[in-house]
Design a protein that fits this description.
The chain has 249 residues and is α+β, with helices and mostly antiparallel strands. It contains 4 helices and 15 strands. Residues 12-238 form the Peptidase M24 domain.
């Protein structure tokens, strides 16, 4: 069931999202060579809890305040202390905050040191996919319009698109209906986008295959061919005349 949010609920979600945006402003400069994922996770936990929030992934029993995925890790990377960033890494951070029962969700990928031109393009195109998906997320459109926008932008640049994981409703729970795929599909419902929807739009692109594997830790999702991946995400709220990016400062 899709949960249509009222004005009070959207305002609560917005506050959570702005706190998350402020968190990214603080922690992204700390993602650099020689720093461990565990150190970044501790910064996230401290920031969130000192401001009255709770890391949203704790409700999912995830072992960290932040999913930190490196290179071929697409999503749900565990922030181990042995995961130390090196020059050339692509580091994706996926973080959510529960602020008084209102959930935010956003992801960003950053480069550590020098990366190749094609890897830089991967980051740029993934961001363009997110922008295109948000542009298509308008009242009166359908979820498939978001999917087509993301998929067409990625494929035009020759990048893989992760099929197995997708965006979703968010705000009162971490994962809500509807699913927001990053690829066009004739399977499943194709809901009309209406005011009051709050969605997490999150393109996940790869340098190679669309296929994924899962590590034995029961969390980490990796590219099946070992190529690097990239992930960007915003939480947005749909209104009658516009769509607001809640997780932008």
């Amino acid at each position: 069931m899709i949960r249509i949010k009222n004005e009070k609920q959207i305002d609560g979600i917005r506050k959570s999202c702005k706190l998350l945006a402020a968190l990214y402003e603080e922690i992204l400069p700390a993602v650099k060579e020689g720093v461990s994922a565990a150190e970044i996770d501790r910064l996230c936990k401290s920031f969130i809890q000192s401001r009255g929030g709770v890391p949203a992934w704790y409700a999912e029993n995830f072992p960290g305040a932040a999913c930190i995925s490196v290179n071929e890790e697409i999503i749900h990377g565990i922030p181990h202390k042995r995961k130390v960033f090196r020059s050339g890494d692509l580091v994706s951070l996926d973080i959510g905050i529960d602020l008084g029962g209102y959930i935010s969700d956003s992801a960003k990928t950053v480069a550590v040191g020098e990366i190749s031109p094609r890897e830089r393009e991967l980051m740029e195109v993934t961001q363009k996919c997110l922008d295109a998906g948000i542009e298509a997320c308008r009242a009166g459109n359908r979820i498939s319009d978001i999917s087509h926008a993301v998929f067409n932008t990625a494929r035009a640049a020759g990048f893989g698109v992760v099929y197995e994981y997708c965006g979703h409703g968010v705000g009162l729970s971490v994962h809500e209906d509807p699913n927001v795929p990053n690829f066009p599909s004739k399977r499943g419902p194709n809901h009309r986008i209406v005011p009051g929807m709050v969605l997490a739009i999150e393109p996940m692109l790869t340098m190679g295959t669309d296929d994924v594997d899962h590590l034995n830790d029961n969390w980490t999702v990796v590219t099946a061919d070992g190529t690097k991946a990239c992930h960007f995400e915003h939480t947005v709220a749909v209104f009658a005349g516009h769509t607001e990016i809640l997780t932008a400062l």
